[in-house]
Amino acid sequence: MAVVKLQRPKLNFGEKIYFGALIKGFFLTMTHAVKTLRGKSVGADELASSGLGVTMQFPEQRWDEHLPEYYRGAPALVTDEQGRERCVSCQLCEFICPPKAIKIVPSEIPSDDPWAKVEKRPLEFEIDMIRCIYCGMCEEVCPEQAIYLRKDYLITGLKRADMVHDKKKLYEIGGTRVGLVNKWNELK
Amino acid sequence: MSDTPSATAELKLPKDQATEKGLVNVQIDGVWHQFPKGTRMIEACRQAQVIVPHYCYHPKLSSPGNCRMCLVQMGMPPRPTPGQEPQRDENGYEIIGWIPRPVIACANTIGENMGIRTTGELVEKCREGVMEFLLINHPLDCPICDQAGECRLQEQSVQHGRGVSRFVDMKVKKPKNVEIGPRIRLDDERCIMCSRCIRFMDEVAGDPVLGFTQRGAHTTLTVHPDRLLDSNYSLNTADICPVGALTSNDFRFQMRVWFLKETPSIDVNCGTGTNITIWTRENKIHRITPRLNDEVNSAWMPDSHRLNFHYIDGEARLTEPLVKSGSRHLPETWAQALASAAAEIKAIPAAQTAIIASGRMTNEELFLTRALAAEIGTSQLALVPRLAEADALLIAADRNPNTTGAKLVLGVEEPYWKLNSIRDGVRNGSIKSLIVLGDDLITDADFTAEDLGKLDFLLQTSVLANPTAEQAHIVLPSAAFAEKRGSMVNLAGRLQRLNRAVEPQGQAHDDWEILRDLILALSGGKNEVYHIEDVFKALAENVSAFNGLTLSKIGHQGAQIADTGYQIPLLANERARKAAGLING
Ligand code: SF4
Ligand code: SF4
Ligand code: SF4
Ligand code: SF4
Ligand code: FES
User: Fold this and answer.
1) Of B143, B177, B252, the CB nearest to A144
2) Residues near B380 by Cβ (< 8 Å), separated by ≥ 6?
3) What does the pLDDT average to over B240-250?
4) Chain A: residue nearest B249 by CA?
5) Which of the following CATH numbers is that of domain B322-565: 3.30.70.260, 3.30.70.930, 3.40.50.11900, 3.40.50.740?
6) B31 contacts: CB under 8 Å, gap ≥ 6
7) Residues of A in contact with B255 (CB under 8 A)
8) What is d(CA B306, CA B294) in angstroms, rounded to the nearest whole number?
9) pLDDT of residue A38
């Protein structure tokens, strides 16, 4: 690998003794302190916080409405408009998952099932939420748009076993997702 | 390969040098090589370590040349006008005139001074074109297709595909998920019409039930009306199908291949000793496929043998030592079970003790069995013969995988003949104590429960629960073929290795360890054998056929150690086809 030499910026005397920066920082902090005491800090209203208006009283108060669109919470499986489970148990997410949180037992769809032409679906699908690092790789790798990181972040349990989301729980969290590619349509 | 002209000797042309050896000169991607006459271009490239992408070509089958994936550019020296000397380069090779159109490498044979280009714009464009045509009607099935991960079409699309389809029309619909035989599922939309399966059934299995119907984009692979693809070799078609058109019902949707670990080993269902690969994930076997060995099974294996592994983690598996108390068997620790076994064996005179070993044991286990017989002091040692019909391809009449090994290790011509006298001994009461290693006497050796009931002591080692174990006083759980290491000698005298693909289930022990521990429990000696390599070493020192060998020296392709004169019928067929020039590999 080529070695790139970086030129450090030249500092003048004032910068070298960093006294100016200290004072700047002090004033910044003080401005926020005064704003807070006057109840004018950022997000004070929406968080409807208690006391001085800066501390959110979790869990009575939640920040759920403030979650950004791109928030990555618990991964979950979704069904489509027709109620079909989108996952075909291709096991790519199981393969890509860095902490090996996913475990899938694939199975064949019986021939009398309305979706028999899809041929394959998971018999069991487990995500160990103790292991999951919310990286979103499963969502990215899924060729069937079947797994998404939803906004659920409160994943708790009293036992290790409680922390393993099985197929039922995953569909519960995931729910229905509309507007995705409908690959297994009548033309297929 | 250039010749340095010397002052005295006349310059010899590369052409003449090659002809002397019966070879021809071929330039592949700019490098000159020599190959035997009659070699196919694709084989020559393979031997020169240049991979030509292909679908329909299979070294063990004829080459119809119908997929066109193997197109390469070819060149020959231009034919000189009469009286004109051919032009040569400084090394004496004639100057190659390149043909502007591509040729298929799989069905054309090489010629003297031929040039082959497997790269370049022409070849690359051909491959891209063929790939685009193949993918026009191909379904987007990879997520549900068992072949994904070992699919040639996927691999070549990565290298030569476009990534995006330009095809705007509707794809052709074909039958999907068709049961064409008891073990094979067909998906016609995925078929790329390479005809490998058709040729295999015709040329190797000798049961030509597959064929194409329709034409063009509607070509459909199908099974002959009123027939099924039910040959005992049908699963080989799933192995050679380059795509997921033919898949195995047994392996269907069990596991993705990229999770599987491959362990090379050998099949133990008959004396042929077919080379296999065991595919496992964690401690579970998911499938078994044949492994190439030109001296044993070529590239094939019978279905009945490859599917015979589900018992390993099945219901009947024995997972802990059992000792009979009253009419029931109760679990016991290994140490206790071995100690009581040794005490019981010692309590009965050696003359009234017999050992019945198994032709399914490895050489190492048989060697230790010999030591066990010596330790007890009995000469009553026999194996259980297991004969059935041979199938004129790979399955041998002798269903014991190690009869030849038993002959060599035990040093007897006929390891089975004492079985009758032992059976009589048990019946007339002259044998009171019986050690049965691995085999089920009631099912396989004409013993009855009543016979075994007469014994004072019956010890059995076994993988599965069985009627003999039912009668045994002590049952020791042993390891299945995929759980142990060791070696066996096939009917043709080839020494081959078993490898451990999975750990033994539960508390089951490797057979050689059980034998070693039993011998130690009898003798009260100190253990000096810790590895199977140690056992093999002792075997190699004691039995002349194994002299100078070690387990690692055997290698994955085996080593010929005896000449038995046995011919594997499938190999004879294959060699005949090769001699006739029908196949190349
Ligand atoms: S978010 Fe990451 S860690 Fe969690 S299940 Fe998906 S791939 Fe695994
Ligand atoms: S990658 Fe998607 S389709 Fe494949 S197993 Fe995971 S969730 Fe199912
Ligand atoms: S045959 Fe290959 S390319 Fe076609 S669906 Fe199966 S894995 Fe995909
Ligand atoms: S089923 Fe497979 S092996 Fe047979 S012709 Fe089609 S692609 Fe080739
Ligand atoms: S491999 Fe040559 S045409 Fe198919």
Assistant:
1) B143
2) B353, B354, B355, B373, B418, B421, B422, B425, B431
3) 97
4) A108
5) 3.40.50.740
6) B48
7) 91, 106
8) 18
9) 80
Alpha-carbon distances of B441 from A27, B337, B540, rounded to whole Å: 94, 21, 31
Q: Dihedral sign, CA of B560, B566, B568, B571?
A: positive
Mutation pick for ligand 2 pocket among A79, A124, A140, A144 (CB with most ligand atoms within 8 Å)? A144
Give the CA distances from residue B317 to residues B311, B321, B421, B437, B462, in Å, rounded to whole numbers and listed in that order.
7, 12, 31, 16, 9
pLDDT higher than threshold 70 for residue A53? no
The SS3 call for residue B140 is coil
- Average pLDDT score over residue span B372-388: 95
Pairing mode of beta strands B71-76, B103-104: antiparallel
Peptide bond into B302 cis (omega under 30): no
pLDDT score of B136: 93
**CATH of range B142-152+161-313; options 3.30.70.20, 3.30.2310.20, 3.40.50.300, 3.40.50.1820:** 3.30.70.20
Q: Is the CB of A104 under 6 A from ligand 1?
A: no
Cβ contacts of residue B275 below 8 Å, gap of 6+? B264, B265, B266, B267, B290, B291, B292, B293, B296, B297, B496, B556, B557, B558
pTM score of the predicted model: 0.91
Which residue type does B37 have? K
CATH 3.30.70.20 boundaries in chain B:
142-152+161-313
| Chain center to CA of A101 | 15
Structure tokens of B446? Answer: 């004409």
pLDDT above 90 covers what percent of chain B? Answer: 90
Give CA–CA dist A179/B563, Å, rounded. Answer: 70
In our burial notation (b when 16+ CB lie closer than 10 A, e otherwise), range B88-106 reads eeeebbbebeeeeebbbbb
Q: Are B478 and B514 in contact (CB under 8 A)?
A: yes
Q: Per CATH, which fold does A67-174 belong to?
A: Alpha-Beta Plaits (3.30.70)
Phi-psi group of A137: left, alpha or beta (phi > 0 → left; psi -120 to 50 → alpha; rest → beta) = alpha
Please give the single-letter amino acid code of residue B158. V
CB B66 within 8 A of CB B221: no
CA distance B477 to B504: 9
Q: Where does chain A hold its CATH 3.30.70.3270 domain(s)? A: 67-174
User: What does CATH list as the number for B14-134?
Assistant: 3.10.20.740
Average pLDDT rounded to a whole number, residues A62-72: 85
Residue A46: pLDDT above 80?
no
Query: Quick check: B60 and B199 in contact, CB under 8 A?
Result: no
- B520-542 pLDDT per residue, tens: 999 998 999 999 999 999 999 99
Q: Is the pLDDT of residue B2 over 80?
A: no
- Please tell me if the CB atom of residue B241 comes closer than 6 angstroms to any atom of ligand 4: yes
Q: Report CB contact under 8 Å: B170, A187.
A: yes
Q: Say yes or no for a CB contact (<8 Å) between B144 and A143.
A: no
The CATH 3.10.20.740 portion of chain B extends over 14-134
